[in-house]
Design brief:
eight-stranded parallel β-sheet, 10 helices, binds pyridoxal-5'-phosphate, globular, single chain
Length: 222
């Protein structure tokens, strides 16, 4: 299958309100250009160096989303151009983002990463930590960063019921946050869930942004 055909097939499964982030990590520029020529404009990367290089080499109307764990000391390199940071997981990182956004005279959109999967990965916040962050004075006073919603990952498993259960929990946290804090903030409206293996399920649970790599570009060789 070609990248263009893969894209077409995925797009046919996405409702109009669901955006596709084409996860191009590890893939060469030619692959990205092929997707670009098929109309794709949003691409996701998870390494700062790789993202900077691709930003410099590829068309300037690409919207680059950073989907990985972002270290505070690297924020400055992507702050001038990044469109969305998917996985903010601390007030410390948020303050760095704010500082660099101000320097660049722009506002940076971001989402908070909710950790729900059973796996004990290092990244993401549990529900209580998300609430604590939002209730903090630092959060209330922060400038030039704009919270757009939540990002999360389900457990890496082929147990569909487990994945459904987790997507349900994520959607529930999102809805509660919306109601309690952001009922009047119309652009708190993004739920970034769903990858190659589970995006159709994620859509059933309210995903507005799916992050798909291997289904578009083929398996990755690291
Ligand atoms: C790599 C990656 C994806 C895409 O994974 P696929 O299974 O190839 O679709 C999505 N989200 C994040 C955070 C990733 O690191």
């Amino acid at each position: 299958m070609s990248i263009q055909k893969n894209l077409k097939s995925i797009k046919s499964k996405l409702p109009d309100n669901v955006k596709l982030v084409a996860v191009s990590k590890t893939k060469p520029n030619e692959d990205i250009i092929e997707a670009y020529n098929a109309g794709q404009r949003i691409f996701g990367e998870n390494k700062v160096q790789e993202l900077i290089r691709k930003y410099e080499e590829l068309p300037k109307d690409i919207e680059w989303h950073f989907i990985g764990h972002l270290q505070t000391n690297k924020v400055k390199y992507i702050a001038p151009f990044v469109s969305m940071i998917h996985a903010v997981d601390s007030i410390k990182l948020l303050k760095f983002l704010s500082k660099e956004a101000i320097k660049n005279n722009r506002t940076i959109d971001y989402m908070l990463q909710l950790h729900i999967a059973k796996e004990d990965t290092k990244f993401g916040m549990n529900k209580q930590q998300v609430y604590d962050l939002i209730n903090s004075d630092d959060f209330k006073n922060i400038k030039n960063v704009n919270l757009r919603g939540l990002m999360a990952m389900a457990s890496y498993t082929d147990d569909k019921e487990q994945i459904k259960h987790e997507f349900g929990l994520i959607k529930n946290v999102f809805d509660n946050l919306k109601q309690e804090f952001f009922a009047n903030k119309n652009d708190f409206n993004e739920l970034s869930i769903g990858m190659s293996l589970d995006f159709e399920l994620a859509i059933e649970y309210g995903s507005t942004m799916v992050r798909i790599g291997s289904n578009i570009f083929g398996i990755r060789n690291y």
